[in-house]
Every structure is written in structure tokens, then in C-alpha cells.
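Need UvrABC system protein A's 3D structure for a figure. Predict it.
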Amino acid sequence: MPEKRDEIILRGLRENNLKNIDLNIPKEKINVFTGLSGSGKSSVVFDTLATESRRQMTLNYPLYIRHQMPRYERPHADLMQHLSPVVVVEQKPVRGNSRSTVGTYMDIDPLIRLLFSRIGSPPIGSATEFSSESSFGNCPECNGFGEVVTPDIHKLIDHTKSIRESAVRFKPLAPPGWQGRWMRDGGLFDPDLPIKDFTEEKYNLLVYGPPEGERAFSTYYYKEGDRDIEWDGLLPRFIRLYINRDLTKLKIVSQEDVLALTTRTPCPVCEGSGLNPRVLECKINGLNIANYARLELTELLGELEKIGDPIGKSIAQQAHPSVKQLVGLGLGYLSLSRKMGTLSGGEAQRVKIARHLGSSLNNITYIFDEPSAGLHPEEINMLTHMLESIRDNYNTVVVIEHNLAVIKTADEIIEMGPGAGRSGGEVVYQGGQEGLRKASALTDLDHTVTVNEQPRTAENTFSIKHASDNNLKNVSVEIPQNALVSVCGVSGSGKSSLMFGAFTGNYPETIAVGQGSIGTSSRSTLATYMGIMSDIRSILAKQSGQPAGLFSFNSLGACPVCEGKGITTPNVAFADPVTVTCEACKGTRYSDEALSYRYKGKNIVEILELTIDETNEYLEMPKIVKKVDTLKDVGLGYLTLGQTTGSLSGGEVQRLKLASHLKKEGQIYLLDEPSLGLHTRDNAHLLDVFQALVDKGNSVILIEHNLNLIAASDWVIEMGPSGGKKGGEVLFEGTPQEMLEADTLTAKWLRDGVKG
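Structure prediction for UvrABC system protein A:
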């Protein structure tokens, strides 16, 4: 009798581009899904496997509880059996407000507050009073933020310009905004006089407002008539509207726009902790709660282990596993007070992984979306050991991955393809590593790194002198111009501080592409994101004599039944939600009137069904051609103009973001890990784009861990030797060929990559 395998059985999968596929995924194994970006990996793993598991888990709860929980629609599939509970670690960036720290994200802070409330001396009271967000616990000077943010008047105002010439550098307070118009036309100030020529009295009125006890009024001209409004001064207005609030809630401007015009210093009253001085008097073994928050995690472990009080020991033991998990993932140099927004991509990725790994439960399916994202090869080694330990604890591991080191840990490899988009959605290969080597699949496990033996020689360099941002230790470095440069090093070694801090400070004209999301949604399409939808609408409007809004499903052209969504979601009370294609528009989103007008034989929907590759043959407007060509350059020619950004894979989003920046004319491009989410084959395509940019006279600088891109560069700079306090130094500067002889971590892995 053949041995019966315990497997997850999936039959007839049809989500997104999946072509009615069947899969058996073995349990208690490491299963790696690979294939080109957009080939269907996420459609299997997230949209089918994870969604169905979560849906079935909620069925175990009573209806009144289920009604309060997230609700999942049954995926498009014929059969989904033998699923187990899932823990999902997605690729999406860690989100948090300006107060979010490692301690709050990992839920360690509440336990530390509880610890101090129970055994701290002198006693304070409840655990909530140890929080900077409580009325008792927050610092009266900085309102719990730990920083005093003050506007810098020399950043806010260009004293050589007049109000009419936009002397005020902050857009909401400058013309043509209403506040700027009011300042210009209200009669209090001469709008054509340079600020430096104002009398002292007028300057003080403009900047600080009227003297204490006095009031000043300025006329604002409405369409309906005039009205006098009280003038309070630029600085008081800026502080009231843009400083004394949670900057993450700003809508018109970003918090970065505000902070660019300010100086930030630790609050002198609470020494940067955000806590009331009375709270800081309470201590455990000589340390207050702010000291605890600043300890490196390795030191914090020692302090938690020192606690002898029975109640304190019980609380400390609950915090211990999460801290140990972070240390085990190589993040021992972080502290609980470290702001999540300041973590590098690799650090954030590991904190996210650690958050989900504190459980000792087994028979769970752990799903990871590119866990290697943002990690140095040395850290990937640590990651693969972690995946093996999860499997060895009788769990099933499902990983979407492109990194060969992670793929080589797999017990089962499933390659999706053969192409991407419409050309994907099939299982190209399933089996062990040896079988993949023999199959005609895209993933080459024996791939070797090719070192650039003829690097470009630079005539000029970009200079950074004595940089001390974050953990940088007085770094000075020369970066070749008109070359492809890679900046590498372990997570937290200072790469981003050097390039996105010091470098962009010296060279503000740099086109910097970070790792932020693009704001994907069901109503945002490739055409709208790339800024060509309005051109397409204007072509149809000109042809038909109708308003351009008729060709928008967000405006006049929306189907009246589904309001431009293309789907309806009928109220099914407590049953599983269900999405139905709109019967009126058949999912097109447009009204019959909008669809009745054509350009070159195609209506708006048929135009949006064109692939990027087909677009230039049909739409010949130079503006459209130029933008569409950038999408082709980054290998997205298979996507359609109307594809929603919310349906794109991580690798497709990364390339779309890159394409939107490539359409800008620039001399210096700084890219933070452009290889994220991309298959080795896609990376080769991207490398061609970078080399072409350099050949046209641009400078391209990559912050990268990918050995293929590092090896192909003209110049490499490595930061290190470790992360946090132990980083911030330049370990190596030179060509990839020279790096092969260096004694650094990246050099070690580069030598391994060349050997294969």
C-alpha cells in the first residue's frame, strides 16, 4: 500500500490570471513558489490558500462574533481541502504613525509598563500612567513626542525674495494658496518688497505676529465680498496648523514637507523620552522606564533575566520571547524606543517576521512573501535556518521567493509561468531541486554571478564630507559620476543614512526612489498612475465632441448601477461576502453612452484592454509614447492600460514605481533596492535599463544586496561592519573585481556567487 502523504489539495484555481490549475502542497515541508514577477505566485498563495484558510477559520466562531471579524469571499476554485491555520508575513511595508516604535509594534511596551507599575520604586500607579500618551504620563513640554520641533525661519522664508515672488517656501502658506494670497493682497505688507528690506516692525509682524496684547487684521477678498481676518504671524500659524498635531494625519502636504522646514531637538525636560519627569523617578534595579526603552535588546534581555520578584519575573518571562526573537534575527543592536519609520528595509522585514514567530504552536501553515527582501546575503543565511526550524517544529512553510539561497532550502519547488500576466498562471514545474535543474524552467539554481571586468572610469565625483547622520561615524566618501554605483552592507549599516540623508542633502536635484508604497487601489490603473489617462480621454473627447469626463468611470462616464466599480457586492447578511460582476455594464465600469463613442474603431474599454506593448501601435501621441516606453523599459509590456494597481504583484509595483521616475529627465538617480520582488531574469532586464541610463550620461546609484547588480556595477561602496552603533563606517570602496580580494561580508558572498 503506497504511503499516504499529508497534503493541502487545491483544484481548479482561477483567481486573477490562474488557468484552472491543480496543486498538491506537501505539509511539514518548505514549499517555495518562484517564477517571473506577475506569473501567478501571489494568486495561489495569498488570494487562494491564505484567503480560504482564514475564511474557514472564521466559520468556527458564533455568528455574532463572526459579524465583527474580517470577512473573506470564497476564492474561485473547485476544491480546497486539508488546509491548516495560517500565519501570514506579507511584503507590504510596516505601517505606523509617528509614535510607532519597535516596542509598540512588537507589543512589548505594554508588558514593560505593567512591569514598572507592579515592581517599580517609588510606585506610581497603573500601567497606563507609564505611557507618554496618558494625561499623567506625558511630558508637559513636548506633549509626549520626545522632541521639540521648531520651525527654522531661514528654511521657511527666502529673505532675498518678496511675498509676490514666493518668499515663503512652504506651499500652503504661499501664493496661489488662499493664505498666500491673503498675505499678498491683504494690505498689511508690501508684496513687492524683499523681506530683507522690511522694517524691523513689519518683519516682526510678518514672522511673529502683533506684539502681546495687540491685534492686527488683514483683508481677504472673497468672490462674494471682502472680509477682515485676524493676522497671527507666519511662525504662530505654521506651529498651530502644522506642528501641534500628528503629522501623519496631514492630507494636503506630507510630514516630510513640514519637517524639512524645522529643526528637531530632544526635549530637555524629558530627555527625549516623552514622559513626565515624575514617571522617570520610578526605577527597577536603578533603571527607569526610559532607560529600559533605550537599552540595546541584548542588554534588555540581561535586565529582564535579573528580575527576582515573583510577580515581576512572571511579567518579564512574557516579554522575554519577543525580545529574544529579535536578537535571534540579528537585531540585538536595536532598542524598544527605535522609531519604526527609521528602520531600513531589511530591519523592518525582520521585525515583521519576529512579530509572527513568538508562538510555539505547531501544525500551522506559515506563509512568507519574499522574506529575503532587504536582507544582506549574510542575513539570508540566518533566515534560511529560521525557515528550517519552523518546518522542523511540524509546521508547513510556504514561501514566495526569487533568492536562490532561499530556493535551495526548499523541499518542494513550484515554479509558476511560463510568462507573466496573461502569459502566466500555469504550473511550469513542481518537485525537488534536482528535477528543476533538468527541467526547462526559468529558475537556474546553478546561476553564477558575473563580475564587471571593464568598469567605466569616472572623470568627476560626488563628494560627501564628514557625514554624521544617524549612526554614520564622520564618513567622507567620493562617488563616481556617470557610472553605475552600488552601495551595500548589512541591514542598519548606514547605507540609507549616507545616501538618502547626506547625499541628497548635498545634491537635492537627485531623483530618489525609495521603498514607499504607491497607493494602490481598485480605481487606480496603470494609465492613471502613469499620467496618460487624461490624454486618452482628451483624444476620445476631441473625436466625439463630448466632455472628457464622459470617458472616466470616476466621473460622468460611470455605469449608473455599479457607480464605476464594475462589480456589485450584494448584502448577504451573515453569509460569506460575494462579489458579482455588474449586469448592467458587464464589468466594464462604463455607461452605455460612454461606450458608444470610438476612436480608430475602439471604445474606451477596448483601448484600456490594450497591452503596453500594443499601445504605441494604436496611440501615437508623443507624450503617451514616451511614458509607455518607460513601462516597456522595465519589462511591464505585458500589462494592460486598464489594469488596476491594486492587482499588481510586489515586483510589478516596484517596477511601476521605477518607470514613473524614469519618465523624469534627470542626471542623478538614487534607487533603494530596485531588485525587490524581481526574478533573476527580470533583474537582468532592469540592469540593461540602468546601463542605458548611464550610457546616456546619467549617474545611477543603487542601494542593493543583490549580488548580480553589485557585481555588474562600475564602483562599489560597502558600509558596516554591523548594524546600529556598530555600523556607520566605510569598509570598502572600489571596483567589483577589487572587491573579490577584500575582507568584508559582501566580498565573502560575492566570491561564493562567482564560484556558484
